[in-house]
């Protein structure tokens, strides 16, 4: 089944982890994929692995200038942009007492400004064609909070707010805007968490394990597909029920 046939998708943070698994899933579903990532080597490697329907663009999503340039270039290369997956994100954890202003600012720059910049640059192409799908990466911690993640939690809660706002602003233009809230997924991001904390998280998860990047990719694909045509403004938990 090719649920994304003839669609052009921009996936930020597509060089690694969940973003790379999403690029692979989208290709399998018939899409053409523009991987936008700050990491050149891994991005080029991913695009090569995924084949001729994938193209890599080196973009730092914290720079509106780079984002605008990449949006124009992607539009020129593919002729349209149907789907935006705002997936790039980082953590820089510390307790409130120990968090530096630089840590606070850096995480806001990538996880909040980056999402705003990409959506601001790409949504006009969707408005012009009167259809589009935007899916943003939030997190379960954006809803429930998390020890040592003031900066990250602020951004992931902010993403839920932006998702609802854009769903209201862009709905009549034929564009749906949703977010996903993953639980703890086995990627580089989670590798920095101590093993004992991972064991504790697995214990707290009714499904008894971490999620896999492919399981988040499946949720992105669903929300980007025509099957989700009347879903907008929602945040879908993909978390093994860790939050109930
Ligand atoms: P990852 O660290 O494996 O990959 C993130 C990608 O974003 C990397 O390829 C990195 O180069 C890219 N990136 C970072 N800064 C960038 C920038 N300024 N411009 C362009 N690209 C940039 O992360 P992972 O785990 O795949 O996470 C993907 C998304 O899912 C993130 O938004 C994350 O916050 C979210 N998420 C992840 C969870 C997890 O347990 N792994 C849980 C909940 C949410």
TrEMBL record:
Annotated SUPFAM superfamilies: NAD(P)-binding Rossmann-fold domains (SSF51735)
SMART domains reported in the protein's UniProt record: PKS_KR (SM00822)
Catalytic reaction equation(s): a (3R)-hydroxyacyl-[ACP] + NADP(+) = a 3-oxoacyl-[ACP] + NADPH + H(+)
Stored Pfam families: adh_short_C2
Keywords: NADP, Oxidoreductase
InterPro entries, A to Z: KR_dom, NAD(P)-bd_dom_sf, Sc_DH/Rdtase_CS, SDR_fam
Domain of life: Bacteria
GO molecular function: 3-oxoacyl-[acyl-carrier-protein] reductase (NADPH) activity
Coiled-coil intervals, chain numbering: none
Keyword flag Zinc: no
Domain Ketoreductase span(s) in chain numbering: 7-183
Family, per entry: Belongs to the short-chain dehydrogenases/reductases (SDR) family.
PANTHER family per the UniProt record, alphabetical: 3-OXOACYL-[ACYL-CARRIER-PROTEIN] REDUCTASE, SHORT-CHAIN DEHYDROGENASES/REDUCTASES FAMILY MEMBER
Function (record text): Catalyzes the NADPH-dependent reduction of beta-ketoacyl-ACP substrates to beta-hydroxyacyl-ACP products, the first reductive step in the elongation cycle of fatty acid biosynthesis.
Name this protein carries in UniProt: 3-oxoacyl-[acyl-carrier-protein] reductase FabG
Protein's organism: Marivirga sericea
């Amino acid at each position: 089944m090719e649920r994304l046939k003839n669609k052009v998708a921009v996936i930020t943070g597509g060089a690694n982890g969940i973003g790379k698994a999403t690029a692979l899933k989208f290709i399998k579903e018939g899409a053409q994929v523009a991987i936008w990532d700050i990491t050149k080597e891994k991005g080029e490697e991913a695009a090569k692995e995924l084949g001729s329907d994938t193209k890599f663009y080196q973009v730092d999503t914290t720079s509106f200038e780079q984002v605008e340039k990449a949006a124009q270039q992607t539009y020129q290369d593919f002729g349209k942009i149907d789907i935006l997956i705002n997936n790039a994100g980082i953590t820089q954890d510390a307790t409130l007492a120990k968090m530096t202003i630089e840590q606070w600012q850096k995480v806001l720059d990538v996880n909040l400004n980056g999402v705003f910049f990409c959506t601001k640059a790409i949504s006009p192409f969707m408005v012009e064609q009167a259809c589009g799908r935007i899916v943003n990466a939030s997190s379960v911690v954006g809803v429930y909070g998390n020890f040592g993640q003031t900066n990250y939690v602020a951004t992931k809660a902010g993403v839920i707010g932006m998702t609802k706002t854009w769903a209201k602003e862009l709905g009549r233009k034929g564009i749906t805007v949703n977010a996903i809230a993953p639980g703890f997924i086995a990627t580089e991001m989670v590798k920095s968490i101590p093993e004992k904390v991972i064991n504790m998280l697995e214990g707290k998860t009714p499904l008894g394990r971490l999620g896999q990047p492919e399981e988040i990719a499946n949720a992105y694909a669903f929300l980007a597909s025509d099957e989700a045509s009347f879903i907008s403004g929602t945040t879908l938990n993909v978390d093994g029920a860790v939050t109930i």
